[in-house]
Amino acid sequence: MCSDPSWLPPLMELSAYNGNWANYLDAVYDRFRADMLSSKLLFRGSRVSVRRIPETKGKGYGFWHCISEGEDEDDRIPDLERCKRIGWIRAVIENADAPEVDCWNNRRGRETHWLLWFREEYLVVLAERKEYYLLKTGYYPKGRRIERLRAERNAAQEKPTPP
Q1: Which pTM was predicted?
Q2: Beta-strand (E) ranges in the chain?
């Protein structure tokens, strides 16, 4: 296993908060807020924004989407793998050109999404807007999702680059 690049922050472990979920959630949110809401972040020269509404328990939509999983937005469940990697979102975006990050785009309906995949361990998804990018999610892919991402990435890398 290769070592982590120096730009990658350490994982935020629940055990560092003595298993106290409320304290841990507050710390994860503080990190997200510092990385994504309180300071300017750019991707490909344009700012990255985060969806803030609707809020749940005083925390914005974009945050909850990045730390939870599930098909139904109203019933998403927090995922510790997502929580402990919350600091990776900004790091991956800022280092999208690093050799450890595969970057490609795709179409989902009428939207263009940019996928930034750190060593097949963590995926950040940004939706392209006219003047900015919107953070859709960041997560630790599992199971068949990894195979689908590999196939999509490989197909995107095989496309000829337009002149």
Answers
A1: 0.89
A2: 42-43, 46-50, 68-69, 77-78, 101-108, 111-118, 122-128, 133-139
3-state secondary structure (DSSP) of residue 104? strand
Whole-angstrom CA distances from 146 to 59, 65, 79, 121, 150 are 29, 19, 17, 9, 6
Kindly list the domain boundaries of the chain, sorted by start residue: 14-158
User: Residues 39-85: pLDDT tens digits?
Assistant: 899 999 999 999 877 767 777 778 888 998 877 666 778 899 999 99
Cα–Cα distance, 63 to 27 (Å, whole number): 12
Hey, is 125 helix, strand or coil? strand
Whether residue 115 contacts residue 105, with contact meaning beta carbons closer than 8 Å, is answered with yes
CB 92 within 8 A of CB 6: no
CB 117 within 8 A of CB 149: yes
